[in-house]
Amino acid sequence: MATITQTTDSLNCIGGDWRTGHSSETLDVFNPATAEVLAKVTLAEASDVDAAVSAAAAAFPAWRRTPPQNRIGFLFKFRTLLEEHAEEIARLTTQENGKTFAESRAELQRGIENVEVACGIPTLMQGYNLEDIASGLDEIMIRQPLGVTAAITPFNFPSMIPLWFLPYAIACGNTFILKPSERVPLTARLLVDLLHQTGLPKGVVNLIVGGKPVVDALLRHPGIRAISFVGSTPVAKYIYAEGSAHGKRVQCQGGAKNYVVVMPDADLEMSAKIVNDSAFGCAGQRCLAVSAAITVGDAAKPFTDAISGIASSLKVGNGLSEGVQMGPVISPASKARIEGLIGKGLNQGGRAVLDGRNPKIDGGEKGAFLKPTILADLAPDNDLTTTEIFGPVLAMQTVKDLDSAIEVLSRSAFGNQASIFTASGSNARKFRYEAPCGNIGVNIGVAAPMAYFPFSGWKDSFLGVMHGQGRDGVEFYTDKKVVVERWPKEWSRKF
Ligand code: NAD
Questions:
Q1: Catalytic pick among 13, 119, 252, 287
Q2: What are phi and psi of 135, to 5 degrees?
Q3: Whose CA is nearest to atom 43 of ligand 1?
Q4: pLDDT tens by residue, 300-322
Q5: Fewest CB atoms less than 10 Å from the CB: which of 82, 180, 214, 262?
Q6: Phi-psi domain of 239 (left: phi exceeds 0; alpha: psi -120 through 50; beta: other)
Q7: Which residue among 155, 216, 252 is best mutated to probe the pocket of ligand 1, counting the most ligand atoms within 8 A of its Cβ?
Q8: CATH number belonging to domain 12-254+461-482
Q9: Does the Cβ of 461 fall within 6 Å of ligand 1?
Q10: Which CATH superfamily is domain 258-442 in?
Q11: What does the pLDDT look like over 376-423, one tens digit per residue?
């Protein structure tokens, strides 16, 4: 499959065949930097989900009997193809998502690392055993695949997030249905196409492009054993409740409000540079983007001066253009929502250090552009200090000490990431120990866990038990079977 054309429509891969969806609803996939339509998509509906589940169920018996060593053979080939097509994948991601080419390439790299970790499945999937649990009795624990599994993913990491789940699911012997964000289905199509170029048996991986009706059909389908989800918290709560009510194992990674605490003893210039990258990289549309900065004591003025200097000079534009450091947000609707939130924060008493609304971008008149925005002096109850903005906006407040900063974090509904910038080991340790968050950064802006660690959100940022990636991924995609054996000598037949 080569380049994307404006008439591209066969985005569903069912049993290895590319098919058009059967919904009466269509959707334009467009480039948020130019408003150019990249593809006109007829969305899938419940009957397409039925077909995908049938294909995945039919593929399961042979796939689970394929030795793990042979299953990962396809993933090794897939990894090679991802490297060979990295530029094409990254360009496509930039076109449909808006982030810069370098950001698209970097997210793909994180995805590739998950494929690499899943290639360790012959070791990772091993169980354990004990001889002589009683005289002559042995006990073993075996991990077995679940069956048909599915993942529902968001718009902000079109290549990486599907790869948080797909490689582990199939390496463990499951078959899999990917339902990417309907706003960015083209990267997913390319990934699934490359996967099939490895010779992967048909039906092991299927792709369905649709919206809520497709999600509901997946959640309620009796043929699906497990659902992985990444997206906003309200949808995560719905998916967790509905999927569980239909007897499925569910893991849901939700939204975020990530705080960074800047201590006066930190290297404030370096901290400002790193926090700038975290707040405004990917136009603030990372689930680990720092979007609220808490300066402690005297750090406020020098840190604010330093970060506003860096942020104001960021080059904003089309992510495929040379030198551009920040692309657009995902859509005009998202831009309008973020601008509304900025206005609200100002009305509630915030001070605009940088106001990125209505920017003038050369050649970007039709794009969903904002420039970096920094609002200071926000009260703890200002909407901007508590709401997920998911755009290039940094909300700042000042507190007197580290205890007060941790208190702010403790009041947050979210627990995806919290970072501290400090030169003090004792401040760092206290923060690591007390901050109520699943991913902690110490002098780190985006504390993204590597593929062999769990992506560990807490509170409203995660619903479930096992997180995505690494060993948690293997636990999630397998059932444990425990066998107790007795083989008395006198029962043995003589041959
Ligand atoms: P979203 O919740 O709107 O959509 C995510 C997925 O759910 C999509 O596939 C979409 O089609 C589907 N969906 C949307 N509304 C639905 C509904 N009402 N019923 C059923 N399905 C529905 O999220 P998004 O805008 O694509 O992504 C941004 C969000 O994802 C942010 O909140 C961000 O913090 C979060 N996110 C979290 C993580 C994490 O690891 N915790 C990672 C990336 C993104």
A1: 287
A2: -60, 115
A3: 287
A4: 999 999 999 999 999 999 999 99
A5: 82
A6: alpha
A7: 155
A8: 3.40.605.10
A9: yes
A10: Aldehyde Dehydrogenase; Chain A, domain 2 (3.40.309.10)
A11: 999 888 888 899 999 999 999 999 999 999 999 999 999 999 999 999
